[in-house]
Amino acid sequence: MKLKSFCGAIFTTFLVLSIPAYAQSAVASEYRWLTFLVFSSIIAATMYITYWASKRVKSTADFYAAGNSISGLQNGWAIAGDYLSAASFLGIAGLISLFGYDGFMYSVGFLMGYIA
Question: Could you tell me the pTM of the whole model?
């Protein structure tokens, strides 16, 4: 069952990530249904994951501390992921929308500076 769920999540991820390939032609109003379909799919997947995760929580301590099952390495990756996605990539997407392709260099420079 876990493998089936994992494969479904991978397939959905690839499906959602392939949508930007059609973004150039999706500007027209005739593709508005595609926008609503992708948005609804993401909301439905999020709600399903929330429902699935809520069944695993037995108490408040399990909710707040994940049942004390998270290691320091996992917590570090989670904090790094939060920082990189929220603070960096959302702002960089705005820079690209404002400055075009030249704004893309901000994302490359930021990541190289973060790694170095």
Answer: 0.40
